[in-house]
Amino acid sequence: MRGLRHRIAVNAERLVRSLETRPGRRVAESVSAEILPLAEACRFLEREAAGLLAPRRLGRRGRPLWLFGVEAEVRREPVGAVLIVGPSNYPLLLPGVQAVQALAAGNRVLVKPAPGCGAPMVLLGEWLEEAGLPPGLFRVLDESAGAVAEAIAAGIDKLVLTGSADTGRAVAEQLARHLVPSTMELSGNDAVFVLPGAEVEQVARALAFGLRLNGSATCIAPRRVFVPRGMAAGLEDALVRQAAAIPQVPVPLPTRRRVATLARDAVAEGARALGNVPEDEDPAMTPLILADARPGMALLREEIFAPVLSLVPVHDMEEALEAAAQSPYALGASVFGPVAQARELAGRIDAGTVTINDLIVPTADPRLPFGGRHASGWGVTRGAEGLLEMTQVKTVSVRRGRLRPHFDAPRESDDALMLAALRLFHGGPGTRTGALRRMLRAVRGRSRN
């Protein structure tokens, strides 16, 4: 891991060039959003992987009394061949972290990049071998859609996918036929909760950052903003000012068409468009903000990889929580406002990750697991929990001494003995004294027989 990390740092410019398929990216954004977090993930594994993967011996504490003489340990072993299906929005960071975690856990790794996104993974493979990884343990598959099905049919032991909910469903069906487990990081339509007392200008800056970062093609970019009615107009004005400085970003035609349809439907249902609804002839989009949106609108229930944001006025946070729950996605969420109230609200939000008074960036902490709920997937990647997901559990128990009473043939006194033992170990204070007497009688009777 150290050798790979050093090569990532020394050859960062090569990685930046390999990421040129991402439209409108500056060098600083590629470094901060993908390359630096990947290097940090490698450092995390250098420091923590050995300890996390080491066998864990269980002491006497918590061991049932009737298992006296038994020593136990829990081991973490590789699952085998791990297929990683990468996305197009972060073609280095997301499959890269998953790959190094799988390798650190002792697995063989296959990576299927998104179309046009294989270059970063090829570089990663070269540097892994230079750093000492034996040949054949990391392989980059071709970018065709059929590569996933071919790999599953050939035999894999686990799949990790980052992609849309529709892709996740289709791949999960294939995996089910082969009984192959998976970790799925799927779509999002992230909610932002604005508490009374939040700094409106700071919230607007944060939302503008979410619209700007990576062309807003981020699974945890803000899409639904729940704001108290008395603060809505101020946030709307501040957000329009901040969004005016965001440049256009190329958006694929099918996405633009879908956004246009959803936006027009929302306007027809009472929302106000603060910006231009995209047209077919425009290859790029400026941020589109819809005010006075309502949670039942389709725009707030679908995954969108484009700079679109809906402002939903609410009476209070109870209404906001109920409104947020109408979306099938539960990947991430953010809360802005006084920290104590924000922490309390965070505990009630149904999402895999919650940031307070920030957006997106804190999730790059290599110590943190990342994953969604409901239509946003299952399992986690990254952090200690993500590393352990690349393993399978084995328990080993060792019996010391020669005493093995359970090997003996059943005796009549065993019924009384077992009932007395149960009440002695787990009965209330009023039953234990009597249970102890009955247990001693049963043991004496068993000895005589």
TrEMBL record:
GO-annotated molecular function: oxidoreductase activity, acting on the aldehyde or oxo group of donors, NAD or NADP as acceptor
Keyword Nucleotide-binding carried by entry: no
Family to which this protein belongs: Belongs to the aldehyde dehydrogenase family.
Gene source species: Azospirillum oryzae
Protein name per its UniProtKB record: Aldehyde dehydrogenase family protein
Keywords: Oxidoreductase, Plasmid
Active-site residue numbers: E185
Record has Repressor as a keyword: no
